[in-house]
Specification:
This is Sulfatase-like hydrolase/transferase. By secondary structure, the protein is α+β, with helices and mostly antiparallel strands. It is 21% helix and 24% strand.
Amino acid sequence: MNKLTSLIISFICIAIAGCQQTAEQKAQNTNTSKQKAPNIIFILTDDLGYGDLGILFQNERKKAGKPYFQTPHLDRLAQEGMLITRHYVPAPVCAPSRASLMLGLHQGHANIRNNQFDKALADNHTIATVLKKAGYATGLVGKWGLQGLNGNSPQTWEAYPTKRGFDYFLGYVRHKDGHNHYPAHQALERPPVELYQNNEEISSQLKGVYTTDLFTAAAKKWIMEKEQSTPDQPFFLYLAYDTPHAGLQIASSPYPEGGGVKGGVQWTDEKGKFINTVTDTVDTYIHPDYASQNWPEVQKRFASMVRRIDDGVGDIVQLLQDLNIDEETLIVFTSDNGPHKESYGYGEYDPVFFDSYGPMDGIKRDVWEGGIRVPTFVRWPKRIAANASNDTPSGFHDWLSTFAQLAGIPAPANTDGVSLLPLLTGKGNQQPGTVYIEYKVDGKTPEYEVFHASHKGQPHGEMQVIYMDGYKGIRTNIESPGDNFQIYDTKADAKETKNLAGTSMYFTRLQNRMKSRVLQLRRPDTSAVRPYDNLPVPALDSVSDLGNGLQYQVLEMATPWTPNLASLEVKPAQAGITPELNLNIRTREEDIVIEYTGVVKVPQTGEYTFYLQTDRGAVLRLHNATLLDADKNYQSGKEVVAVILLEKGYHPITLTYARGKKGTPLLQLQWSGPGIARQSIGSPQLFHQNKQAKAGL
């Protein structure tokens, strides 16, 4: 008897036992089910363009009589939930996008930027560590690429997935390994590669195994085993397909009929046949819907790759239904950047044949909409309305806060994202989010005929995107920190053909606000130097009705880390004004959180050094930049230091302090700068505004 048969029998036994439960037991289970946090499956595809979903663009091509491919399962699932039609990646290439996703930080804060493939993900809060703390089982199946440049094994890689919050891992560790979709075989331009399951390298067992099928089968197996062993525990599955990224390899056989527990792809774990789609040949199966089409071979391959993902996702949803957990599972489906133009040995390939960028311009590595706006839908039966759509700009770094709220746990104070749960469910007030992108790469935007003349051949170089007031500001090939943004209304002009910069006084002011904003929400990184790194952070344009001291609020609560209070709906035990960072305002000795907010007066433009010490955890944000992070892995009493260039004037600050049960209460914030010897920041420099300033404090 193989493992799959044994697992199915176990589920039948569980079902029979369930039928024999008493009414009281059923009522108890119902109550437990209501209290249980939802399962979360985050499905990330690799290089799938906005236009590569039928529901977003391919179905329109069909109506127009143009070549098209189908995504029937994905279309149905999107219709059963909400399409988020202006969802943005943090950068138009995979490594920084995946890092920002995991950390809940945009590219102004994440430690992996530009093309820093395989760099170690920072040892800070991740989606997995946050959900694990909330009681979730956590699994990663698919591509990682954030393990660290040093080491060659799970034991020696600094940021192996199981060291960043995942209980289980099966997939590719190295970035480039994910470019061969048959790990045990030589590809046209790729050698056999390594693939790991937890601490074991298993590629030698994967003869004939196509990774799209393998990752689907592994995801199903993990979910089934999890539901069999701990059905009352919610799970988080990060399913990161390595397709349809090139090489343009395809499966070897038709997708097995059915899906779920009994059908679809299955993990057999048999010697010589790891999953049930293994055949004697590899890389041969063109989907029959495309085999007879008069298309180039590379386009048939690409369409077949996308269809295989579609079948896999449909298979997994059938499993959720078989296990009766579909309604308690939230699914996010998206992609890591815009469409690629590589084939890796299969011939000339470009995404123009199917307009994979949709109604926009730009591909992977561009910051035009086609490179950064990705196909995204969220499905949660009976919680998210069917046939819904929302065009509010949002980004990858919002998912950590969203999932934290779902799990009933506060988001960490360092996160840049906001919870999208109000947007998705229509319940509660949606906080405004931040969409911010920075990226540097050589090359140019392709000169595709359908692209707007102003975009064709546009050099990349240093690039930057900021959304403000719903408008997109974009700078490419930045040579001077004073270079202007082009400004577009991407809701009405997705192709970015009408530059609104300078067309009215409003857009002139918006230009200046954008230039200030991008300096106020980021921190320089010496591994990715930008032209604007050495500009002082602008002060607020105007302030009024200032009072001495900071506003504060005290919350009586135990927290696993220093929390982002904006993510909580908890009434403070006490609130008021304090002339300085005074811990005497605490309402009890243990398990409290204090948030101080206000402005600090900077006497002259120059370089300032901030010093922070605390007993358990504290995070200081200046404007919207995280200046000091004394939270995860912080050692009590250790001094953390940051240097920043500040413009003369008033700068908003938020200092969040969290105390547990250990140690002596301690919170000390000092600074030094032009004409200021190191000293505590006190009442002469700290103010609060009695009314909201027009500048948006």
